[in-house]
Amino acid sequence: MKKIRFNPIKSLVYIVVLSILTTACTAISPTSSPTISGTKELTVMVHDSFAASDEVIQDFEDEHQAKIVFLPSGDTGTALNKAILSKGNPLADVFYGVDNTFLSRALDEGIFDAYSSPVLTEIPEEFKLDSNNYALPVDYGDVCLNYDRAYFQEKGISPPMSLEDLSKPKYKSLLVVQNPATSSPGLAFLLTTIAQYGEDGYLDYWKKLKENDVLIVNDWETAYYTEFSGSSGKGPRPIVVSYDSSPAFEVIYAETPITEPSTAAIVTDGTCFRQTEFVGILKGGKNRELAEKWVDFMLTPKFQEDMPLQMFVFPVNPHAKLDEVFVKYLKLPEKTAYISPQAIAQNRERWLQTWTEAILR
């Protein structure tokens, strides 16, 4: 069976409707289907931005006589919803991609089995947000505003350098963001505004953005590839919520070689939010032993060193080395917005409901 690899620069993944997946999971169970004699099949649920090198995956398959099948399941919020709705009869053995903004929901819903990987001893404590090891940290990255450099140069307008700038008339109809209820970068941006303006002021700020014709879409792919005007996008809007690593992504995967990124990240203090992504073994999966091996593998330097140029995220294993090409084009924030995981867990659903009622209705 040919493995599917996902390259976020070249294609968008078509998402299978959850009801069809749920109906089909009994007839075609991805967690239990055997492959060629002696080979076990492991299904890994992932968000749509997941990517890994064929050689790296092949190394794991050869070592463990296994076949890895990836199940793309939408943005992080959508994928988590699918994992929750299929709880007890999971669509996969492992789920990678839930982040610190959605982590408490995954833990509260009990979709994971605990697993204390031996490789955890190599991971710094700052990334271990689940002390019971239901969800293990894999990577981190900063959600930041990005802008199309050519647009602002041609218009003779300075790009925004703060959240407040985005509400000014000269930036009217220029910004596209993701719905925080369905998108992890969208939720990260919402949390950034809460950290900046507080619970008493963030809705007033969003109302200013709405008056300034902010466009809200469901996921990162739509925002970046369809609505954003940067080199990878074809849309009309030159400001988008994305990542601090996106400009490097533009250079490395440019169809025509370029020496400077066509986009830039805004990394002034308090304008970016740090995400940490996790992997967990889904409760009820049929291949526990192989699932543990896969989780171990994701934390090793071999897999961790592959991630930056595949998904433009940073490894949590300090023994993994960053590629010089990746580092060259990075511009990192010195001070990110911060809300504690405990505060996110206690308030996330209320913040989302309040935001939805005030901004979308």
Overview of the molecule:
The protein has 13 helices and 11 strands. The chain is an alpha/beta fold and 361 residues long. Helix 6 packs across helix 7 and helix 7 packs parallel to helix 13 (341-360). The longest helix is centred in the last third of the chain and has 20 residues, at 341-360. The model is unreliable at 1-36 (pLDDT under 50).
- CATH homologous superfamily title of the largest domain: Periplasmic binding protein-like II
CATH class of the largest domain: Alpha Beta
Number of helices: 13
Q: Provide the CATH architecture of the largest domain.
A: 3-Layer(aba) Sandwich
Overall pLDDT, averaged? 88
Shape category: globular
Order of helices and strands: HEHEHEHEEHEHHEHEHEEHHEHH
